Amino acid sequence: MAPQHVENLNNWMQIMVQLTDQPDSNGAKGWYHDCFGRAKVVAADADSATFEYTVEKSDCNLSDNFHGGGIATLMDNLTTAAMFTRERKYFQFAGVSTDLHITYVSAATLGMVLLLECKVVKVGAGLANTTAVLKEKATGRVLATGTHTKFNTDARMSESKL
């Protein structure tokens, strides 16, 4: 684990929490805020990051299992975050998803502590590819795997939009 990569990633995640800190009309701050505010970086290097995340009631379906849409959102956001472990020439504004594929293997239950291992496969001028493995921290049991492709929107964005 390289300290500068953890620091870069924590800084980016803190910016995301600040950008989403205002509650909506119902008082909720939403998934971005929960995801980046509750996920803890436990390891990072130039092209990967591992996050710890505890399943809370708001993450669960009626069976007290982590909702599949919540898992997909967590993988979407944290594979994107993994691209910010270091400075890159492209994807300064994180881009947009073009493909997100999740394979659900086993249930994650209320209160379970999870590890999400994210790897950056490739970042090019137009597309970025990442992978993720969601595991139960206590046992290492795989709960879900994912691949994520992102399209670069840097040309459409500007610093003033942040």
From TrEMBL:
Belongs to the thioesterase PaaI family. InterPro entries: ACOT13, HotDog_dom_sf, Thioestr_dom. GO terms for molecular function: fatty acyl-CoA hydrolase activity. This is Thioesterase domain-containing protein. Keywords: Hydrolase. CDD domains: PaaI_thioesterase. It comes from Podila minutissima. Residues 66-131 form the Thioesterase domain. It comes from the Eukaryota.
